[in-house]
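[job 0412] stage=complex_fold ligand=NAP status=START
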Amino acid sequence: MKKAALITGASSGIGAATAIEYSKNGYFVYLMGRNKERLQEVALQCRGGASIVSCDITDLPALNKRLDEVLSAKIHRVEVIVNNAGIYDVHSTEKGSDEIWTREFEVNLLGPVRIVRAFFPYFKQHGGGSIVNISSTLGLRPQGPTSAYAAMKAAMVNWTQSLAYEGGEFKIRANCICPGIVDTPIHSFHNLDPEKKTEALEKMKTLQPLGRIGTPEDVARAAYFFGSELSSWTTGAVVPVDGGINLT
Ligand SMILES: NC(=O)c1ccc[n+]([C@@H]2O[C@H](COP(=O)([O-])OP(=O)(O)OC[C@H]3O[C@@H](n4cnc5c(N)ncnc54)[C@H](OP(=O)(O)O)[C@@H]3O)[C@@H](O)[C@H]2O)c1
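[job 0412] stage=complex_fold status=DONE, emitting structure tokens
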């Protein structure tokens, strides 16, 4: 059976780059997200083969249906899950509504929990598996008015470590990556016209010791390392991939 990876949020940014990275390394990839057109574009760049499993991860019946399809596939064995789908929100605790907190919880935490819960029996049955959770440096150290987002990303860090404990005896590994500022559509600066964007990026450069913000590929390579056998003796790791911004 060909080894496969399930990547959530694969239609854009870090998830798309991660899917392409796994594909380059011989994995069949299951691409999850809502935007079928963009998933299709990513699938075309995955030369190792790809299948689109489009759904909103907050829609439980739709998610379960998609997960059943992946879990029952006979030609590919999923060895890796990359929980990458996420939404960002810029509100303080004072300004953030219940609706914002609920949405942040459902997309950034409950969705990944449901996916892992569905995969645990499958991983046990197949002798192991690897989970990579994409958190954020804001989950390690909050900054700015992003309290709901930062709280969910902090919960993801802690949950990853619980998973590492729970999964160890079944050879299920769980690791967490905390990206810094990465140039993707999640940020409003991503689609600025070139002059304004250069200006915005110049300002952000000084925030990181390595002198630049990240690319989706910078994170994708780490997501490949922690998901694949390259990191076979690592579990429960929480790793900033952030140009050093966590040191500033
Ligand atoms: N970029 C950064 O600076 C940065 C820093 C730290 C952490 N991160 C984290 O990295 C991850 C990827 O973000 P990105 O920067 O690559 O942003 P992005 O380009 O906006 O990608 C977000 C992805 O999440 C998917 N998604 C959002 N809501 C979803 C839902 N309800 N159901 C299914 N899929 C959903 C989107 O797919 P559809 O629109 O097709 O549904 C998209 O593929 C996120 O968890 C984010 O918090 C990013």
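The beta strands are 2-8, 28-33, 50-54, 76-83, 129-134, 172-179, 238-241.
[job 0412] exit 0
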